[in-house]
Amino acid sequence: MRIDILTLFPKMFEDFSSTGIFQRAVENKLVEFNIWNIRDYTHDKHHVVDDYPYGGGAGMVMKPEPIFEAVESIRQPDDNDKKVSIILTTPQGRLFSQTIAAELAEYDRLIIICGHYEGVDERVHRHLATDEISIGDYVLSGGEPAAMVITDAVTRLIPGVLGSDESAKDDSHSAGLLEYPQYTRPPLFKDWEVPEILLSGNHGEIARWRRRQAIIRTAERRPELLDKAELSAEEIKLVNEKGKKVSPEE
Ligand code: SAM
Asked: Burial of 190 by CB count in 10 Å (0-12 exposed, 13-18 middle, 19+ buried)?
């Protein structure tokens, strides 16, 4: 996959792209990552990227020309044969989730536009972006944290990015449940023991314990997620004992 980020603050991505799983994905050529400075696509002496809003009001609005020009300049001749998404980060977009991350992981190219100030000219929303994504119901000062969130969540789902000892399949939200509790050494820390089952070496029992814990945890913390989870009759009974009512028909 190729990911291109359009931003006014390229430096914000330096550490992000040179650490951890993401860096490994780039080194292993599973992801190509490019950062473009929107200011480089202006043609005036002062490289102006924003202007006053028509109709008045507080703040500045990002001009459309540099953003359109930046996107056009990085489009590739073979883009028409590929799955390309031009994503505008905005608090007005569809709410990002693990399901959307999995959907985007199927694309060949993501072009992510980071807004600033009061946002971007509406013509970018209407005539350039093919998708608009919000990472939550709050307002950030810029789209860079949102672009990092989207890039990170999508990259983990690209086949081969996580090593064989890491897996996204049990991660919270992957199968409609939160993940079970995780422990590592030491087996006793202060007065707190690791559950005995995890030390037993019995993989079948461990898998059953983890599934049960994932269901209990979800029922306690995010009961609304259970409405879409696939549960057996026995698991539905367990959920109902925890106070969240799920019927087999749901
Ligand atoms: N005035 C805009 C509004 O009320 O919809 C908010 C502009 S915000 C201060 C500046 C930029 O930050 C946006 O253009 C967008 O790129 C980014 N941004 C802010 N909140 C976001 C969110 N929840 N998800 C994704 N991007 C966000």
From this structure: exposed
